[in-house]
Design goal:
Layout lengths: L8 E3 L5 E9 L2 H4 L9 E6 L2 E7 L2 H14 L10 E3 L4 E5 L5 H6 L5 H12 L38 H5 L5 H17 L15 H13 L4 H7 L2 H12 L23 H8 L10 H5 L2 H4 L2
């Protein structure tokens, strides 16, 4: 990637100039001493509007524009509005907030929580002008029944099958939506842990929490995973609960800030350990939890 610097002008495919203002996120490469700016995300100005400039690999750069063709009619996905070929940098609209910061900024009216989550499911005082999914350049478009055989996503937010890297598909996205919904309602990253014991893989610790809150282990997850090593790990984790280390079923949690009647049943259906039993996005959009006031 070409080096980038404050004040530099990047001319997009459209011919529009973007003036780099400042780095708004340093990638790991720069934190480790690479100060070229080529790996960082920039705030840019063009006319009276701010944009985000995100350098990516040549492969992801091409992938982003292919996805833009497929998804260009959806207002709920943040797609690149432009790009600079020389630096393989994507240009996006600048959003003033993200879900994590928004939820942590203070109490959120119930109606706004549902508005955010509806925006996530649909392919938008503190007003919400728009809601969109971001970081789509590394996404893959799957047909019904297809899956990806790799570990993808952040450990705390991805599904049980995504922890194992086996047949990650549309149902896996539904699980991640459920974790996002729990966070939006309660401000809890539900499967996070405080400290990882030496020698324990993060995926194993998170799977243990999943089996504690939403277990026991269903045969459907074993059938879905089909990997002998991971199936053995799942079985051992499921058998580790006893009187000294009891499960902590989510359905029985009490005094959780933000939880209202009906939330646990709605979230429990989404956070089903069996991918085949999770509802589809269409089914969730028609659920009474969303349609009721």
């Amino acid at each position: 990637m070409a080096s980038l610097r404050t004040g530099q002008v990047l001319v997009g495919r459209t011919g529009i100039p973007y003036y780099l203002q400042k780095i708004i996120h340093k990638r790991e490469e720069q934190r480790l001493g690479n100060d070229s700016g080529a790996h960082s995300i920039w705030l840019a100005l063009s006319g009276n509007n701010f944009y985000v400039v995100k350098p990516v690999s040549p492969f992801l750069y091409k992938q982003a524009f292919r996805l833009r063709e497929d998804l260009r009619f959806s207002p709920f996905v943040r797609l690149p509005v432009d790009g600079n070929d020389a630096s393989t940098a994507l240009v996006f609209r600048h959003y003033t907030n993200d879900l994590l910061k928004f939820v942590q900024s203070g109490p959120i009216p119930r109606s706004q929580i549902k508005q955010i989550l509806l925006g996530v499911l649909k392919d938008g005082t503190r007003e919400i002008d728009d809601v969109a999914l971001s970081d789509m350049e590394a996404a893959a478009r799957l047909e019904e029944g297809e899956g990806i055989f790799t570990q993808v996503g952040n450990t705390f937010w991805r599904s049980p099958e995504a922890q194992t890297g086996t047949r990650v598909g549309k149902a896996s996205d539904i699980w991640s939506f459920g974790v996002t919904a729990v966070y939006a309602i309660t401000k809890m990253v539900i499967f996070a842990y405080d400290k990882l014991e030496e020698g324990v893989m993060p995926e194993v610790e998170v799977l243990s929490n999943m089996l504690s809150y939403f277990g026991p282990l269903p045969p459907g997850l074993i059938e879905h995973v089909r990997d002998s090593s991971w199936c053995h790990i799942l079985a051992m984790l499921d058998q580790s609960f006893d009187k000294c280390t009891p499960r902590m079923p989510f359905a029985l949690w009490k005094d959780v800030d933000g939880i209202e009647p009906g939330d646990k049943e709605f979230l429990g259906r989404i956070l089903n350990l069996d991918p085949q039993l999770r509802p589809s996005a269409k089914e969730l959009l028609e659920d009474e939890w969303f349609t009721s006031s």
